[in-house]
Amino acid sequence: MIYLKSPSEIATIKRNGAIIKTCMEAAAEMIRPGVKKEDIDRAIEKIIIDAKAKPAFKGFHGYPAATCISVNEEVVHGIPNGRVLKEGDICGIDVGVLKDGYYADAARTFPVGKISTKTRQLLDVTSAALDKGIDRARIGNRLSDISHAIENYVLENGFSVVKTLVGHGIGQQMHEEPQVPNFGPPAHGPDLREGLVIAIEPMVNTGGSDVFTLQDGWTVVTADSGCSAHFEDTVAVTANGPEILTR
């Protein structure tokens, strides 16, 4: 069942999204060669706790950390550990916040120092694909209009979208209906209605779309060891168009 949110519920999610925005600003300052993934995780967890919120991922189905930090070939769900960031890497930061009974969720992928032209294009295309999807989150469209806009833009630019992982509804639960794929034909799925809140999150690879999960049970990596970028925002469908709650 799809739960539509009231304006007050959306306002609560947006306040949580502001905490995530602060986390991302801190991550942007920290990410540089020589920094460990676990150092970034600790800093972000402190920001969340200082805001009297909870890191939504910590303990979720047993996940061990406050954030997911994924580097290069790691697509999503990378566990923050002692891996040291190097010049030319890319580093995806996925943050969830729980406060006042509601969740917010967002991700960004950052360059580590100077990156290659191809890798910069990957980040730019993935970020723009998210914006293309968000622009379709309007009353009168259908869910797959979001999915199609993302995939079409990614393919036009010579990259591939991950198909085994999708976005999701969000609210009182971190993962609610509907699922939000990053691929597919337009004009399918449920109608987009006022009050729908979804996490739109394209995951884009330089090579093929195939991925697999490492033995840690969490970290998803590209099958061909190519780089992957991940951008995500929590978005509300409103009478005035899409409202991004995590920027």
Structural class: alpha+beta
Give the CATH superfamily: Creatinase/methionine aminopeptidase superfamily
Number of helices: 4
Unreliable residue runs: none
Global shape:
globular
**Could you tell me how far the N terminus lies from the C terminus, measured between alpha carbons in angstroms?**
27 Å
CATH class: Alpha Beta
Rg estimate, integer Å: 17 Å
Structure summary, number of beta strands: 15
Mean pLDDT: 98
Overall number of domains:
1
How would you spell out the order of helices and strands?
Answer: HHEEEEEHHEEEEEEEEEE
**How are the strands ordered across the major sheet?**
8-7-9-14-15
Helix content: 25-40%
What is CATH's topology name? Creatine Amidinohydrolase
Which CATH architecture would you pick?
Alpha-Beta Complex
Describe the main β-sheet briefly: 5 strands, antiparallel
**Estimated share of beta-strand residues:** 25-35%
Provide a concise account of the structure shown.
This protein is an alpha+beta fold. 29% of the residues lie in helices and 27% in strands. It has helices spanning 7-30, 37-50, 117-135, 143-156, and strands at residues 54-55, 67-71, 74-76, 90-99, 102-111, 160-161, 167-169, 176-180, 197-200, 203-205, 211-213, 220-222, 228-230, 233-238, 241-244.
Give a description of the structure.
This protein is of the alpha+beta class. It has one domain: Creatine Amidinohydrolase. Helices cover 29% and strands 27% of the residues. It is built from 4 helices and 15 strands. It has helices spanning 7-30, 37-50, 117-135, 143-156; strands spanning 54-55, 67-71, 74-76, 90-99, 102-111, 160-161, 167-169, 176-180, 197-200, 203-205, 211-213, 220-222, 228-230, 233-238, 241-244. α1 (7-30) packs antiparallel against α2 and α3 runs antiparallel to α4. It is globular, with a radius of gyration of 17 Å. The protein starts with 6 loop residues before the first helix and ends with a strand. The model has no long low-confidence stretch (mean pLDDT 98).
